[in-house]
């Protein structure tokens, strides 16, 4: 069935039907021509013979009539029959005729067409069946020709010659067989020629089809062999040129796509491209970070790439409807993003929108730091200075009268000076770290004993507050390379913060794991959590989440800033996740290769 649907089959059938139709018309016309030709030639021959017989009989009247008849009968062939009528009473039949086949004279006299030979003295010819002796009409058709016979001083007679058309039909049948045989041979030869021609024509087309499938599969360097120099050869040349141009265009598009991808990936701002219906088409890494923060804020179990913040969708709808740029701001997990949504045009129609997501957390953080820095430093220094000044004045003014009171005041002055010294030392350490002057003493550390030793320092404090302190470390490795003193400083700070901020009878969990990338630590607590507005500023110097500063034990506000610089020095990263009423989790990661 596939053959008839192919170009070869269609072309072969078309040529065959066309030639067959032409041969059919030609055969019909030839058959008609030869049939008429045979009848006309027979008519001419019989008419000529009848006229000759009439002249012979006219030239042999009277005594020579018998001689004339003998000469006349000699002119008649075996297929023809002749009847000579001199008058109603005198008539002759050609020799060889049987009496049973003689045509009655009345037939010639009474037939309207044949009687015109006698009455009008003209030659006539008709095709008619002949009656027999019993006057029954024979179905066989005869060609009958009548020629006037002029007799001296007598009424004109006639010479009738007739012949059965079966002889002509036999000749026609033979001619038809020959024509049909020739037509059959022509059709067979045409079939072979058409199949050969269609195969030769479609062979390059099949090559092009195979090449087209190869190009569709991405093999743009596929070439079609040029077998001829006709239109098909030109088509093959054009196909090869198209393949080269398509490869060039695809390479150009690929380069442009890679360039666009590189640009998007390298952008500091996030980019989200939306379809007309609001479906996300393209995102870059900063935009994915923004969406991950939003997923966590919404409490989604998994990152659903189809979900979009409602604020962004509102800006998208306004941008599409008004065809104007829209600006908004979103806050999630303590970070602030400014969203700029602009309509995206396809020629004259809007086909979507593009949103630029800019993380403004650092800018907001710097603004807040500028506002809070002086207040924080002033507060940290004012308290010990005020206490030292007050107790010093008390000693100078002899308010403390006993030695015990003087020692107590001196002890307070000493403690506050130590506190100021710690503050100054931490500020100097932080300044050296931020300047890149920190030196790491990296060595292989046995992980489990190391972590257990740090936890052991807090057992007394945890037991005093009724806090459950637990360790969950999953690692098949025995040791890991990092600076043990610096990382102990980080863990100590995080654990101390967790214990100081959780309520009594709560839990603090220290967990960790290793993989092919490095080592991960997490310190989770069941405390009240950290307000979202405070999260971006936790790792800034002098920042304290407790604005009242009324805790019994208060730090300098530099611990987390120092911890961040220590982790940065290890080429790692530290982060925090928290929700009010659900606790806080500090996480940091140290890679395997520390440069």
TrEMBL record:
It is a multi-pass membrane protein. It catalyses: ATP + protein L-histidine = ADP + protein N-phospho-L-histidine. InterPro entries: BphY/WalK/GraS-like (IPR050351), HAMP_dom (IPR003660), HATPase_C_sf (IPR036890), HATPase_dom (IPR003594), His_kinase_dom (IPR005467), HisK_dim/P_dom (IPR003661), HisK_dim/P_sf (IPR036097), HisK_sensor (IPR041328). CDD domains: HAMP, HATPase, HisKA. Gene3D superfamilies: 1.10.287.130, 6.10.340.10, Histidine kinase-like ATPase, C-terminal domain, PAS domain. Signal peptide: none annotated. GO terms for biological process: osmosensory signaling via phosphorelay pathway; regulation of DNA-templated transcription. It is found in: Cell membrane. Its EC number is 2.7.13.3. SMART domains: HAMP (SM00304), HATPase_c (SM00387), HisKA (SM00388). One of its GO terms (molecular function) is phosphorelay response regulator activity. The chain crosses the membrane at residues 12-34, 178-197. Residues 199-251 form the HAMP domain. Its main location: membrane. The lineage of its organism: Bacteria, Bacillati, Bacillota, Bacilli, Bacillales. It comes from Mesobacillus boroniphilus JCM 21738. This is histidine kinase. One of its GO terms (cellular component) is plasma membrane. It holds the Pfam family HATPase_c. Keywords: ATP-binding, Cell membrane, Kinase, Membrane, Nucleotide-binding, Phosphoprotein, Transferase, Transmembrane, Transmembrane helix, Two-component regulatory system. Residues 376-594 form the Histidine kinase domain.
């Amino acid at each position: 069935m596939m053959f008839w649907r192919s170009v070869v089959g269609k072309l072969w059938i078309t040529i065959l039907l066309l030639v067959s139709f032409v041969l059919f018309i030609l055969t019909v016309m030839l058959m008609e021509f030869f049939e008429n030709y045979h009848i006309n030639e027979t008519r001419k021959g019989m008419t000529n013979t009848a006229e000759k017989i009439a002249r012979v009989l006219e030239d042999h009247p009277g005594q020579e009539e018998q001689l004339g008849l003998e000469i006349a009968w000699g002119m008649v062939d075996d297929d023809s029959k002749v009847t000579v009528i001199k008058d109603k009473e005198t008539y002759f039949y050609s020799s060889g005729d049987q009496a049973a086949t003689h045509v009655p004279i009345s037939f010639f006299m009474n037939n309207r067409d044949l009687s015109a030979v006698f009455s009008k003295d003209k030659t006539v010819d008709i095709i008619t069946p002949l009656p027999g002796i019993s006057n029954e009409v024979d179905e066989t058709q005869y060609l009958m020709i009548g020629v006037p016979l002029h007799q001296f001083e007598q009424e004109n007679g006639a010479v009738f010659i007739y012949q059965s058309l079966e002889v002509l039909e036999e000749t026609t049948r033979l001619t038809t067989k020959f024509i049909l045989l020739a037509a059959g041979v022509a059709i067979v030869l045409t079939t072979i020629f058409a199949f050969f021609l269609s195969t030769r024509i479609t062979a390059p087309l099949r090559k092009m089809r195979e090449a087209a499938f190869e190009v569709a599969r991405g093999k743009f360097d596929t070439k079609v062999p040029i077998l001829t120099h006709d239109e098909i050869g030109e088509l093959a040349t054009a196909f090869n040129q198209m393949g080269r141009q398509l490869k060039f265009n695809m390479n150009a598009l690929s380069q442009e796509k890679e360039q666009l991808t590189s640009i998007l990936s390298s952008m500091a701002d996030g980019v989200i491209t939306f379809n007309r219906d609001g479906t996300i088409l393209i995102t870059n890494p900063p935009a994915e970070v923004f969406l991950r923060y939003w997923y966590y804020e919404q409490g989604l179990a998994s990152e659903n790439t189809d979900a979009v913040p409602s604020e962004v969708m509102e800006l998208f709808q306004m941008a599409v409807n008004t065809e104007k740029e829209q600006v908004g701001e979103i806050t999630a997990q303590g970070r602030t993003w400014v969203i700029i949504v602009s309509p995206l045009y396809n020629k004259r129609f809007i086909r979507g929108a593009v949103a630029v997501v800019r993380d403004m957390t650092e800018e907001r953080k710097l603004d807040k730091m500028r506002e809070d820095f002086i207040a924080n430093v002033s507060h940290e220094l004012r308290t010990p200075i005020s206490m030292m000044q007050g107790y010093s004045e008390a000693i100078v003014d002899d308010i403390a009268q006993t030695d015990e009171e003087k020692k107590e005041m001196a002890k307070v002055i000493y403690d506050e000076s130590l506190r100021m010294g710690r503050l100054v030392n931490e500020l100097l350490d932080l300044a050296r770290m931020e300047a890149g002057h920190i030196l790491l003493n990296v060595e292989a550390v046995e992980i489990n004993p190391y972590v257990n030793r740090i936890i052991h320092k807090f057992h007394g404090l945890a037991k005093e507050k009724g806090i459950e302190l637990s360790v969950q470390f999953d690692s098949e490795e025995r040791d890991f390379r990092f600076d043990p003193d610096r990382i102990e400083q980080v863990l100590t700070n995080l654990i101390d913060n967790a214990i100081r901020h959780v309520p009594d009878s709560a839990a603090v969990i220290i967990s960790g794991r290793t993989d092919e990338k490095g080592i991960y630590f997490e310190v989770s607590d069941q405390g009240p959590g950290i307000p979202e507005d405070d999260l971006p500023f936790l790792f800034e110097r002098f920042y304290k989440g407790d604005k009242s500063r009324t805790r019994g034990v208060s730090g300098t506000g530099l611990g987390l800033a120092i911890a961040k610089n220590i982790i940065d020095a290890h080429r790692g990263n530290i982060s925090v996740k928290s929700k009010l009423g659900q606790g806080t989790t500090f996480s940091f990661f140290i890679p395997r290769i520390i440069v």
